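Progress report, Aim 2. The chain analyzed during this reporting quarter is listed below.
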Amino acid sequence: MTIVSLYKLHNRCSQKLYAIYLFTFCVYLNSSKSFFINPRCASPENKFSFNKAYKMKKLTAFIFVLLCFEFLPGGKLYSQDVSLHKMFDAYYTERMQLIPLEATQNGDSVYSDKLYADFTDSYRLKLRNFFTRFQNEIQKFKRDNLNAEDRISYDIFKREMQVSLEGLAVGYFSNQVLYPEHQYMPFNQFGGMPLWLAQLGSGTGQQPFNTINDYDRWISRASAFPGWVDSAIIYFRKGMDANVVLPQILVKKMIPQMEAMVGSDATQSLFYGPINLMPENFSKSERSRLNAAFITLINEKLIPSYKKLADFLKNEYLPKARQTTGIKALQQGDDYYTYLIHFWTTTNKTPEEIYQTGLSEVKRIRTKMDSIKNELGFKGDLNAFFQFMKTDKQFMPFKTPEEVLNAYRSIQGRIEPNLRKMFNHVPKTKFEIRQTQAYRAASASAEYNPGATDGSRPGIFYVPILDAATFNVTTGMEGLFLHEAIPGHHYQISLQMENDKLPKFRRYTMYGAYVEGWGLYAESLGKELGLYTDPYQYIGALGKEIHRSIRLVVDAGMHSRNMTREEAIKYMMDNMPVSEQKAVAEIERYMAMPAQALSYKTGSLKIRELRARYEKMPGAKFNLASFHDAFLDGGSMPLDILEDNMDAWARMQQN
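Predicted structure tokens for the chain:
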């Protein structure tokens, strides 16, 4: 065995196995002189030559072994690059200063008093300079000199700089808290600062309210909201001048959202919530001071700001909003959509490829749903079956929101035994199920909000419940729980954030195709986890899967093929069991956030492709728990980097 052959061995086997090979080889070298010596050198007359040759070859072997150990973890050639990680740390620290909402979400309260209008020209210039500088910094490192894990970090970081700059070039920027918004459309009915501020200020969200300083930081942050609103109105007006405006139907949904924040009694405001939740150890004088400060904040800054937004949207913006559905109607609409597809799917797929994939998947899943309908003995076509599930009272058993939440909690208990067989590692972060706040429930989908790694905040699965009596179990409660909660987003996001082996920027960076792809893949584990035994729940799960396939059709259809809102709603209702109210909310969500809905199916198809490939790989014994561990261990990453990483893992399983 030569140095070259042992180096090749290092590249194709696991580090543990490589160490075993190396140890065995060392023992062999030490015990066998014949390995070094030509037998003809062993005659008495060649004794001097024998000893000289033996010593020289022993020295050569010693140097050889030292070189081999360089390739093990901790060796210089494969050790962590300290200067690279210092650069990663500097990037993360500076990013938190620039984007303080991310710091708050990540459990760091240092910047929880800051609120910036990151859509303004001056702030976008700061962001552009920031990403350009670190794009130049990463170029200083030679990728081939890095160890395997650092190469992954290098690839992710380099892509992050590139994609961020590409987005800024066409007017978009996304942080890890709010969805990407064009600077001329600073928020919409589904997301943005006005809605997020309400979640932060309720006292039950990500903004900490544990100490006096926490309360004072919130007062400082919320006091910046009037300035944010003034800037937003300026940039909405710039969009009006450039004809870069939101669809009128979305603006009509935004107005009542803003009006809901306006009231005459500050103590009844959502933003008064933290006062009602004040810790008992606060002194009487501090309680009195904070109470007065919150009332002043609500009456003099927050309520007037929301009223200003509502009035502007109603009287000035709505008449100028567009009648069209998709982003294609905008002057640079095709460029915007191309960027957003790249951002959300981490691929270079075209809108047409995505559209055709959606049509194919819808057809496949409809065939499966039709088969189950026939097994249940239902007389009528699939659309009639959907109508039956939507309207029959047997599928609406709840009377109160708490009964709905308890039904989700029971799902968690049923999957627990099988989870232990399918996952070797589970998160430490606590988990809760809560009802979505009333002020945003009408436009909200079920969602997961990450917890804090220090244990101060649990991961939360929010469920919008407008009317418990009409909450339908056939919408796929089991599949939804697997996706949004366990083992979907709660497992994936919490394990990533808890993984202190990763650079901080990787612990807190989320890529849509990976994150949502995992969520949809988690839904497909239902039968393996002991769920979907009720055929109506399985139909519900298939309804969730076809829903994500429909998204490919309607999202690409609206934003690249001039499909109208009404056509998209009809297509969704024709192909899945969904109420008109839900279909409208979904389609308008895709109108507000082009391409975001593409990430689910794109990511899950790739994960399923990888799992199927490794299950059939010759010479490897596939273990599902190990596959899941390997997938989750590196955290969120673009799909091409993920595939390379998982292929390397699979090769190690062959040894």
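The radius of gyration is 29 Å. The longest helix spans residues 284-317. These observations will guide the mutagenesis work planned for the next reporting period.
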